[in-house]
Amino acid sequence: MTGTRKTVAVLFLLPALVLLGALVVYPIGYSVIRSFYNASGDGFSGADNYRTLFTDDGIRTALKNNVIWVVFAPTVSTALGLVFAVLTERVRWGTAFKLVVFMPMAISMLAAGIIFRLVYDQDPHKGVANAVWVGVHDTFAQASAFPKAHPGRESPLVAQGGGFITKAPVRAGQPVTLPLVGVAPDQMPDSARKAVAARPEPGRITGTTWQDFTRGKGVGRLGAPDPSELGYAGMRIEAVKDGKVVAAAKAAGDGTFTLPASADGARLRLPASNFKEPYNGVEWLGPALVTPAIVGAYVWMWAGFAMVLIAAGLAGVPRELLEAARVDGANEWQVFRKVTVPLLAPVLAVVTVTLMINVLKVFDLVYIIAPGSSQDDANVLALELYRKGFAENQPGVASAIAVLLLVLVIPVMAFNIRRLRREVRR
Length: 426
Fold this sequence. Notes:
Blueprint: H1 6-34, H2 48-52, H3 57-88, H4 94-102, H5 109-119, H6 128-140, E1 157-160, E2 163-166, E3 176-180, E4 205-211, E5 236-241, E6 244-250, E7 256-259, E8 267-270, H7 290-315, H8 319-327, H9 332-343, H10 345-360, H11 364-369, H12 381-391, H13 395-425
Parallel strand pairs: 3-4
Antiparallel strand pairs: 1-2, 2-8, 4-7, 5-6, 5-8
Helix pairs in contact: 1-13, 3-4, 3-7, 3-10, 4-7, 7-10, 8-9, 10-13, 12-13
């Protein structure tokens, strides 16, 4: 059409064709051939490697997880990108917001994996996700300050149902001592003060519960508050008769408490709620949540990519159509759902298909974020290919997985090519 001789055209195309053949065609052909050989490569195994794809537990888990990835990761990323693109058109600082959302795209998968490995750390003092989760939880359900407390030597308390109870009933007018040990001084409540011995009160049960431990060899007395010992501020004490709680009280800052006359003859119980272990958050990288957690990291990275492409498409939407819909009485939700989204359908299809192809070969995030204990549960096909080929020395099975990935990608690519051709004809 341009009058260019075919020889000149071939010369210009030759470097690209050589690279395409060396980097794409040859590896595909070699992988297909290699998938029919055994691990040593010197024996033809037929379809055994392909049968392994559907009998190996690790590969089946990887297939299942890849389905989860293909369904949720592109959908959530595209949906968030659409919401961000529409909303940023309505705020003055939309450009700055787009910059912040798109910024994770500048981070490599490896770096993002390391970041989210820390974000999802189980320790609330290290992991941001659990720090927030524990903070919200403790706002509504305060953890106990005495999870490690327990009776020491010569204690009047014995264990019962996760808590402790006195060995004998108590009597009015006779002060009760409830000594415990096991709480580090720096973990005592801020309201704790120096423990004092309770004074007897006629017709009432009085007592003290405190940390019966003084640092230093031979220092302090067992069973009696010493000057350096602190009271268990806030400790709940219950008086129990015949299995029923007849009275209850909370210890003051100095550990003292008072119960009414109805507690006479009861046994005093320190319920298990006093010793409940602090809430330690969610096991984000455990077997149950590791795949959704890694998908969340992927969405954090790629939602900005979706937003930028959709925002470019949104810039080309005729504004008169939106205004006409508003004039006809449509509210903003109706305009978005029935006008904006249909007009953006081609762009949304491009973004979704691109992300589907991308997630089929996701490897870095899963390999870095998932700990060894739950990597089998987070397994995907690209990671299983690596493990079979390099860790387990099964290159034939690894080649079969590579061919399977190619087969899975082809329909998505074919759909994308057909859609592009249809757009060109329009």
